[in-house]
Every structure is written in structure tokens, then in C-alpha cells.
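Troubleshooting log. The previous structure file for this entry was overwritten by mistake, so regenerating from the original sequence record. Sequence copied from the archived sheet and checked twice against the printout by T.R.
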Amino acid sequence: MHITALSGGIGGARFLRGLRRVVSPDDELTVIGNTADDIWLFGLKICPDLDTVMYTLGDGIDDDRGWGRRDETWQIKDELAAYGVEPTWFGLGDRDLATHIVRTQMLSAGYPLSAVTKALSARWLPESERPPVRLLPMSDDRVETHIVIDDEAEPSGRRAIHFQEYWVRRHAEPTVRDVVVVGVDEAAAAPGVVDAILDADAVILPPSNPIVSIGTVLGVKDIAVGLRDTRAPVVGLSPIVEGAAVRGMADQLLSGLGIENSAASIAEHYGARRHGGYLDGWLVHDADRDLVPRIEQADIAARAVPLLMRDRAATDAMAVATLDLVEELRT
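Regenerated output below.
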């Protein structure tokens, strides 16, 4: 089976690790990673979601934090702070820094991000491992998510800040007035991305943020069209459980954009493929089973199963439930 997944960072990566454990060694997994969180800092190109997926599936992630390298040290961060180098709110670990240096060198040499990602993945996701995993950036073009917040110092009373500043520096505390994804309208899908969707036997939307993770991937027109045109069932998992995000800042983003914070509203936000949307099936947490009829009224097959990745067994069970719904939709 050829499985293609669209993914953000921590939540998506942890689900994909479980998915990789439960599929057959002969299956193939392609992950299309969000790059709208990317940022240039200290002269380096940082790709948080791509790296989180790569480290997680390559067994190098710090599981306590959910991002960055295991057994990380922070001497370079401390040295930069001692020099007064800004920004001090975004730290790069010593081990992690090597990834960003290699990426930046290759980009500076003229390689596109897709080629750079393939080269980096050769270390963490070697083709000899089974089942094989191929990690693709959603686009080689520069796409950046900016969050519009209130700012009395600005003539308009508002200003846009990079997503990383909103999330890391400001801890998602300012009220969200809008989300602007710079460059997404002009961006083209990276090589191999559309084919991975069209040739898939299953397309999965893990429980990643629907606005700034999955939403930005779907903002690339080629990807959106491919998802609507593929013959494979498209199944997603709700990142919202009992009216709240399991992790991250989806609550703040949804409320700021006027979207109801529920598993049903996210399914409606994506929409049914038969009506020009993206979903054939949707999994909600078992405590949200009362929302299943509402989701099915939108012509999206819905099932209620446990959706909290408390441990390895729970995560693997989520992956199995996802594949079960895929098979049900294929018959």
C-alpha cells in the first residue's frame, strides 16, 4: 500500500511514528511536510516541522519536548546570548544546529529545498529501512505564516508577526485577528508531491493544526487539486478533543478566525470531497461521539475512537483505526 500523509510538527509526527509501526514492511509512506513555519534566523534556514518529522521517524527526537534532538546541549545558544545576539527567544541546540548549517549551505549552493530534504533524510530515514519513508516539503518556494495581532503603536492598530514569534516568543497569548500565509498563492508543489497524492492508496491528514499546519499545505493550489482528484480515500483525525486542542495553539487560532472549536467544525472546515472539500472520512475522540451525526450530515464518514496519544499502544491503535476507516471507504 502507498500511503501519503500531510503533516505538521509534533502531533503529526507522533501519529506517523505509530502508523509506521503498524503498517506492513512492504508498504510505502510519503510525508508531505508543512514549510510555512520555516524561518531564517542567525543566517540559517530553520524548518521546524520537516525536522520534527525527520527526527521523530528517525528516532532522534527529544520525546519530552516533542521537538529538537535527544541529549541536546545548548552551549552555542548561551554563547550567542552572551554576545547579545538577537533573537534570544529562539534557541538552537548544538546537535540540531548541524542540520540547519547543512541545509543552509546546500540552499546557498543552489539546491532546492526538496533536494536538501532528501539529502538530510538519507541519514535519518535510509531507504533500506522498512517500511520506507519519503519526506517531501510541500513546496520549494518560500511560504511564511504571519499572525495579525493588535498593536496600538501601529497606525492601523494592528501588525503581522511571524508565526514563530507568535508561538515561541509570545506563547500564543495575543488575540489572533487574522492569519496571513505569505507566498502561498504563488507557491507550486515540490517535485513528487502531487504524484504522491494521486498515486496513493490512502491519504491521511494526521491530528495536526488545521490552520497553520494542514491548512497551509492545502493552501498550495497544486496540492489542493491533487487531494480532490486522487482516487484514494482521504481520512483525517481531529486535533480537537472535547472542545479543546490536544496541544498547540489551535484554540487561539480558531477563536480568532471565528471557527467553532470542535471536532465537527474542523471536519466542516475541511469539507467533504464530494462537495469540493478534502475529506472522505474523519475520526473523532470517543468522548465526542455525539458529533458523529453532524459530521455525517456533511457527507463525511465519521467514527469515534480514542484519539489521545498517551503511550505507544494508544498511538498505534489510532493508526489502526485510521487504516480501518480507509479500508471501509475503499470497499
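The chain is about 40% helix and 20% strand. Archived copy saved in two places this time.
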